[in-house]
Structure formats: structure tokens, C-alpha cells
Amino acid sequence: MRSHLLNDTTTEHYRRSVTEGVERVAAKLAATDRPFTGVTADDLAPRIDAIDLDRPLGDTTAVLDELEDVYLRDAVYFHHPRYLAHLNCPVVIPAVLGEAVLSAVNSSLDTWDQSAGGTLIERKLVDWTAARIGLGPAADGVFTSGGTQSNLQALLLAREETKTQDLGKLRVFASEVSHFSVQKSAKLLGLGPDAVVVVPVDHDKRMQTVALAHELERCAEAGLIPMAVVATAGTTDFGSIDPLPEIAGLCEQYGAWMHVDAAYGCGLLASLKYRHRIDGIERADSVTVDYHKSFFQPVSSSAVLVRDAATLRHATYHAEYLNPRRMVSERIPNQVDKSLQTTRRFDALKLWMTLRVMGADGIGALFDEVCDLAAEGWKLLAADPRFDVVVEPSLSTLVFRYVPAAVTDPAEIDRANLYARKALFASGDAVVAGTKVSGRHYLKFTLLNPETTTADITAVLDLIAGHAEQYLGESLDRAC
Ligand SMILES: *Cc1c(COP(=O)(O)O)cnc(C)c1O
């Protein structure tokens, strides 16, 4: 069994194993002609159930053969140009190489004595990101597992900065289309059930600042404390960007912490064409960025940035065995002092490899391409009488619904759209997402693949219309 330990005597085994795995994945990627096979959980579960984990196969080739059957064949492939569903990007090769390196060396970024250079690389990327945002000289931050954790940490700092014991008095303001992790964080942070004040959005799904001002005023009048405003720079559903400068002004006026959730919109930090769309982000107290959403990085790669490094102390605890207090005066850099996690992956290496090989402009150009594609797609949809499209894209999301002229019952149209999404998924020809707009079912393309073309968009729209028509035809038959 020792031959499986990665060390100086097993490098040949390591090389062969990893190469064999890379060959399989490369062959798979080259051969996938659809983003998905349409497999159902009922189809797949028995295959996985049948495997006895207490009877290992012992041999890498046999295990890879088995993996083909239980995972690789039926995985959902984000690199495919007709994967248009969620906020998943195709990944860039330098980042995948980084992933291979970081798991083989297996540094842990909690302390200097488990990572050395890894800690300094992460710090440099945090500084780089903070500079791109424009957070100023006192900024800092840390890599996290994802936007959910970044939002939680930002709101923890905001809560502590209020210096209030009476948690029931704290209020967090976020738009009605903000990410659900805001609600979850409020709960985890012990805030009351009414803590999150939901602010309405305008026609373009951006927070209404007049309504925000009104809510902040009401909060003050009631003797409550405005703990934070969460502005979303790139909503999950629409890619809409809240009016950051106006929100920053209101945060200053009412003494609220400004958190910008740029989990999706952070791609604009590298954009060559559209950076101005997130102007005002530099006034935030904290920012969430998900490189695994719009920097073409493998999951996980994410960070939380703060304007004032000192606020990170709210996440600091000292353990004698790990990061004793004296290390601070010895100037030993321990990232655990800033993190909610302890043992932590060196995810920063992926972004490092990406920036060193491609540069930020390379990433920004790819993100610009998907924004341009979304603008083209919006024109196609707006000109197509079969579809109703909402919200001209600020990033790369399109939300629309099939609306046949002959059908007037909105509930029937809902069912046709739901059916089309399901039928498309089952066919594996394309994968699209769905959401609700004003109580009605819509479909959604999240475009993050520069390889997707307008021809792909047109083809998938035709598939959707075909499935929806089939549903409506059969529904008519049922009624007769
Ligand atoms: C995806 C997303 C999150 C959550 O990020 P994870 O990395 O999935 O945890 C938070 N906010 C917004 C706006 C998002 O789109």
C-alpha cells in the first residue's frame, strides 16, 4: 500500500497515474458532442449503489474504467458550448495545471509553517484584486470556499463593527433578487427573523435606491441599527448591477457597512470594455468575488476583500498549537488569522498560474466576449415574436420565455416553458436554467463560454420552441 503514497520513491507511479487520468479526461472532452447524456438519478443510482467500497479494485486502469461508467460518461460538461444554465464557466488550462500542482504539494494556507510561499502568493493576489477594485492602501482579504462564505464573513465583520449586543436591532438591506446566502448568513449570525429588509428592484432588476433610502430612514426612526447594505454587482438571476454610487452615498449617510456581492460581476474587474459598469465598487467596505464564476477558474476559487484590514480581526482567534498571539509581533504571516476556515486549499495558485500565463487582459477579453454574446442574444430574442425577453443584459445572462401567440392562459405558458426546459435536459442537447419573473416561469441562459456562438443560441431557442409546441399540441389533444 505504501506504493500509493506520493513521495520521492513513487514519482513514476504518480506520473503514470496522473497521465492516465489526464488522457481519459482529454479523450472524453474531445468526444463529448452534447453537454449532457440526459441520464436520470434513477438510471444512475443503481450503478453507484452496486459498487462495494470495501472491495477495492486496486488498479488505476480498472478504477478509471469504472469511473467512466459512474461519472465521466454522464457528467454535465460545462465546457460544451450548449451548456447555458448556471454560473459555471469553462476552465482555463493554466488554472487546471495549478489545481494539479496544488493538490500534489498539498500546502495548507492556514499558517506560514504549512505553506511558506503559498501564503505570500495568496496575499499578492488579494492585493492585486483589492487594487483592481480600488479599495485603497489599507485593504486586505482572504481566499474563501465561495461566494456564500465570502458573504457570511463580510456580514460577520459588519455585525461586529456595529459593536451592538442587541442583535435583534440589526438590519441588513438587500434587493429582492440578491443571493439567498444573505438570508442564510443573517440566520447564522444570530440576527432576528426580520433582520433582512428586502428592497424592491426596478424594471431592470436593480435595487431601487429611493426605496432603499426610505427603508434606511424607517430603520433610523424605529431606533434600529442599519448594519449593512448588500449591493449585488451581477445578480444570479439577471446579471443586473445595483446602482453602486448611489448606494455608497446612502451607506455613508446612514452609517451602514457597504458590502458589494460581486460573485458574478467580478469578471468586469479584468474587462477591457465594460469595467465602468461596476464603478462605485471602490467605495465598498467589503466585496465578494468568485473567480470560479467569471475568471474561468475551477471550483473553488473565491475571495472576500475589505477596505480596512483591521476589520478582519473579528475573525481572529489564537490557538497555542497553531497561530499563537506572539507570532503576530514576530510578523509571521498566518492567513488563518483572517479566515473562517482552518485547513484551507491553496486555491490562489490557480489564479496565479492564469495571470502569469494569460494575464488579466486575457481573462478580461474572454469575459467581454460573453458579455457581447449576451447583447447579441438579447437582440435575437427581442426580434423573435415567439419569445418574451426581460432585462437587457449588463453581464451575460438572458431571461426569456416562450410565448405562443395562440395561447393566452399564462399558467399554460408556464407549463410549456417548464416542460421545454425538462425535455431539453432529458435530451442532453443543451442545458438551460429557469427562474421566476413576477410569478411566471421563465427560462435562463447564463452565457460564460466564449465558444458559444449566436448560431448556438438560435439553435437552442428553436429546440425550446419545438419542445414547448409539442407540449401545447399534446395538451390540446388532452383537452379534446
Ligand atoms: C453564486 C453567487 C453567490 C454564492 O457563491 P458560491 O460560490 O456559489 O457560494 C453569491 N452571490 C451571488 C450574486 C452569486 O451569483
TrEMBL record:
Keywords noted in UniProt: Lyase
Assigned EC number: 4.1.1.86
Superkingdom of origin: Bacteria
Protein name in the entry: L-2,4-diaminobutyrate decarboxylase
